[in-house]
């Protein structure tokens, strides 16, 4: 790809993939119901994202790090996501992933989809087991927005040449910061604020909205 014409930053859990990885990990810890209830409330904007994430991660204490292999094998890309990303890349639009999920999953997805830009949360492990704690910067709604802006700056792109796609309340700031924010199969809290939304889970439905980058 010779010239970068634009940037499309995508959320991962519930957007690029069908599942919420934290819920899959919760299943392995025997805490799926508690975790998924907190996840749903956080995505609707009813809970502070960072504190709710720390609470959910605490339930994962003691899981072996090999749990990520099982979780990765359990996830599914949203319909036509791979084709969508490939079309963008062939047209000079760089794709980045920014996720409130976890690096061991997001890094593998990025490699599989030939995506070089990604950012996600890191879980602490000790002696091959999760400690139930996060390390490093938390990918909060504010950090999602800042990450998009940082990548945009690095690529020397105008705001108008950036797209952001997400589904939850924690994506709102990022979508508002992009030239084009797209609420994809999104929670009502996002759809109220973002005029462009796709309600059918098919990434080919998103393509017509990105004409501005031609």
UniProtKB/TrEMBL annotation:
Alphabetized CDD domains for the sequence: HAD_PSP (cd07500)
EC number: 3.1.3.3
Coiled-coil segments: none
Any Pfam family the entry gives: HAD
Gene3D superfamilies: HAD superfamily/HAD-like
Active site: 11, 13
Any one GO biological process: L-serine biosynthetic process
Example of a GO cellular component annotation carried by this entry: cytoplasm
Catalytic activity entry: O-phospho-L-serine + H2O = L-serine + phosphate; O-phospho-D-serine + H2O = D-serine + phosphate
Names of the cofactor(s): Mg(2+)
Keywords linked to the UniProt accession: Amino-acid biosynthesis, Hydrolase, Magnesium, Metal-binding, Serine biosynthesis
Classification via InterPro entries: HAD-like_SerB, HAD-like_sf, HAD_sf, PSP
GO molecular function: L-phosphoserine phosphatase activity; magnesium ion binding
UniProt pathway annotation: Amino-acid biosynthesis; L-serine biosynthesis; L-serine from 3-phospho-D-glycerate: step 3/3
Family stated for the protein in its record: Belongs to the HAD-like hydrolase superfamily. SerB family.
PANTHER family for this protein: PHOSPHOSERINE PHOSPHATASE
Protein known as: phosphoserine phosphatase
């Amino acid at each position: 790809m010779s010239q970068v014409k634009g940037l499309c930053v995508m959320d991962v859990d519930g957007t690029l993939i069908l599942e919420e990885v934290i819920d899959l990990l919760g299943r392995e810890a025997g805490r799926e119901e508690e975790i998924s209830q907190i996840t749903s409330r956080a995505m609707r904007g009813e809970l502070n994202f960072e504190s709710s994430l720390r609470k959910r991660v605490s339930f994962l204490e003691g899981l072996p790090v090999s749990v990520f292999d099982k979780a990765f094998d359990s996830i599914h890309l949203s319909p036509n996501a791979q084709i969508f990303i490939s079309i963008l890349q062939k047209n000079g639009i760089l794709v980045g992933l920014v996720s409130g999920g976890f690096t061991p999953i997001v890094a593998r997805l990025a490699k599989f989809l030939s995506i070089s830009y990604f950012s996600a949360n890191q879980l602490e492990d000790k002696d091959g087991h999760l400690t139930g704690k996060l390390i490093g910067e938390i990918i909060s709604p504010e950090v999602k927005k800042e990450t998009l802006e940082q990548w945009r700056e690095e690529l020397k792109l105008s705001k108008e040449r950036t797209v952001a796609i997400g589904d939850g309340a924690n994506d709102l700031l990022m979508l508002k910061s992009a030239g084009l924010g797209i609420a994809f199969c999104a929670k009502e809290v996002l759809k109220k604020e973002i005029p462009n939304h796709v309600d059918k889970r098919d990434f080919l439905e998103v393509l017509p909205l990105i004409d501005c980058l031609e």
